[in-house]
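Fill-in record for DUF4179 domain-containing protein.
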Amino acid sequence: MSKWSFTNRDDRDADELMSRQMQVIPATLPDFFTEQVMEQVRHTEMDAPTGMNLRKLSGMRRNRVIKKLQWGSAVTIGTAFMAFVLVSSYSAYVRNSLQIVQTYTYSAPLPSLMFGDNKPDFDIGLMEAQALGVVQQANVQATDKGYTLMLRDVVADPTRMVLSLQIVDEKGQPAELAMDRFDFEQLHLKDQQGEDIGQLRGIMPMETRIGSDHSKQKYVMLIYIFPDKQPKDKVLIQSNVNELKTSKDGKKSLKGNWNFSYTADMEKANSLVVTSDLNESYTTPEGLHVKMDQLVHTPAGVQLKFTTSLPEAAAALTPMELRNKLTVMFHLEDAKGQELSRINSSKDGGYVDRSFAYTMKEEEGTATLHWNYYFSYLPYDSMNVRFVLDGYSIPVKSNDSITFRPEELKQQPVIFNKQGDHLEIHDMKITEIKDEPGISAWMMVSGSFANQFKADQWVAHDPDGKEYRVVFRGSYTDGEKATISKPNTGTSPSYFIAKGLTALPKELTLVRTITDKRYTDVDWSFDLPKIERNEALKSIPIP
């Protein structure tokens, strides 16, 4: 899996918002669609940095599903998404007036966009939610200026609330550009006191095939979680939409009023929640303490909650501001040892990840973190499921260094070998490019890292002792080792950039001040408590 790293700080802002947000949905072809059903998986590497802040989702091309973004030595994954078609006959409301705003609910519900007439089989969690009766057909809409914004389906679930949203033009056809450039910050999920409680964690454009090599966006599926406050019996879905983008570049817009509200009934879903307390804990040889807290089963998903803490001696190795960069690596497997989901723990050959989001909260002034992982589906109500800890990583202070003469690099690359990490520096030049402003020293690099690499921090020192911040720009392959490809191997070269170094020095010292240390010397697993499968779900096959 190739990962790209950018150097703009705005890219880092999107880390928590988009981290693990889009699940890769294992799909089989449903048999309930009235016309063509297709699955299309695209693997797209991200373009060069643009500096946009992806916390602002408006204008983002969602046909490139973004899974994780970080700054500096962090990474962006252009991950796959599934597109499918549901063509069903329905009567489109067409109006000619461009001035009168209408908001209403259909008396006769439109066909479901997400489910059609039968059960879906592309997402077991949604399939189970439908069987348990927590999928609501909202069918509310607002029309203005020839465009209609519609909320069609609502999966009213406390683990993930899933909405299907559609914009159609005056001919009743899906308005692809308006959906593609839609500002989802104009939608709010609120409790009965009017407080925002929903957090957007997934944007999934659902497409229909037009011809043999073209597809068109039909609607958007949105995934929300409730990280701070679990919903009670009612959740208000509120649209405050006053502008639609109607061009590819987002520069052309239409002012109007597409406001609506819908109250989702959470009572049934909340009555079906099964919470299991977990009395399991483990301390790694290096001192990380992992305490499992709760397992929460809801109609459309599962939440796994646990707490990590570091003793004073281990915590002292990591600067306070980096302690929240801890990553826990684990996987879940069935009784035969087959993996059901692998989290943060890559292995060669890829992995399956059924989680679609996580939250992490710090206890201020401590090395204690509270985690909640959200899964679309975990079958511990039908089989034995085992949690297996694979390790963890955390940035720690280091002082690894290498000194070299830049003018000699073309004849002989210099090699950095520290803590199981291998880095080669092949060339160095003074330059700047349009999206990396400022003349700097660019070092062409390759290598393989036993540690995580993504949170490493580097600096460079010239012979006069002046220090320069170093950032990584390029791509690497994540597996049991992180690998940066050598130059001239068919991939774009990767660089360490010493920011502000404007002339080649006779000698340069490269220092790694923070190592994203990976610890895998762990030995701990336990069985999740099995719960009784709901009678309404027994007809649903378990993959």
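KEY FINDING: The longest strand covers residues 385-404.
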